[in-house]
Amino acid sequence: MKKFVVHSAPHTNVKTNTLSIMGCVILALLPTAIAGCVMYQLPAVFLLMATTGTAFLTDLVVRALFRRDRTAPDGSAAVTGLILGLSLPPSFPVLWAIAGSAFAIIIVKELFDGIGKNFANPALTARMLLMVLCMEQMHTWTFPDGTVDAVSGATPLVQQATLWDLFLGNTAGCIGETCAAAILLGGIYLYLSGIISPAAPLAYLGSFALLTWLGGYPVLPQLLSGSLLFCAVFAATDYTTTPITKTGKVLFGIGCGCITYFARHYGGYAEGAGFAILIMNLFVPLLDRIAAPGAFGAAAKRAGK
Questions:
Q1: What would the pLDDT profile of 14-25 be if each residue is shown by its tens digit?
Q2: Please, are residues 238 and 204 in contact by the beta-carbon 8 Å criterion?
Q3: Structural domains in the chain?
Q4: Contacts of 192 (CB under 8 A, 6+ apart)
Q5: pLDDT by residue (tens digit) across 19-59?
Q6: Spatial contact of 29 and 187, defined as CB atoms under 8 Å apart
Q7: Which of these, 164, 277, 160, 293, lies nearest to 229 by C-alpha position?
Q8: Are 241 and 118 in contact (CB under 8 A)?
Q9: Cα–Cα dist 269/227, whole Å
Q10: 141: β partners
Q11: By CB neighbour count within 10 A (0-12 exposed, 13-18 middle, 19+ buried), where does 75 fall?
């Protein structure tokens, strides 16, 4: 007769931890980072090194000052810095990028007691701050051949680019947001590794595509332009700032898709994916409450059974 030992929750039999998850995310971001560095060369390399290194070191210092466990080696700070760097134009001033990376860690991440406690995506929050403070620099786009489009307000969304150019990244834009092929490769890897659920990204892209089609705009160019695809794969799947239930993830994605569509076509900014995710981050507790499963037997009890 077998004897079983009963322990209190939580019960787990997997070896997945924060370090392994963040390691997978970094590996998924590598194709996008490599593609950006190949296209935009040394400026992109220096910018990614600056944001990633600043995030890592800032997290170490802040954790030491707050006398917390040093969590930087778990990779979360490096992921934040890398995502921020990939969401900046290659010509963006390095000093401002360093300031944005430090802001993401100190204010958005550590001020709320570190990983798992922040209510908004740190990298996207820093990007939106830099967009407000450095609007001209954030809208100075560099083409892979080195030419620059410095027209205020210009984005890759209004360029005349073929679908093949958009897919391979042969357009001007941010370091990690122009090569759709690299982004999709990273997303597929995260899905096959069991790190992310496709619910939120598919609901995000699907709702945006539907509204785009109903609005009479070309669907594929819109899907492959700007930061939409990058945000759908690497920001709408963040564990901390997105819902935990499948229904909640779908509602979150639909909300992001709707906000992005209206921001692009009716707002003051030609790109709205970052704003959309940050706005929906605020609704995550409500979405989790709406989508939370009922207690076992509660339905039967209400029915008088």
A1: 567 788 899 999
A2: no
A3: 18-284 (1.10.3430)
A4: none
A5: 889 999 999 999 999 999 999 999 999 999 999 999 999 99
A6: no
A7: 277
A8: yes
A9: 12
A10: 149
A11: buried
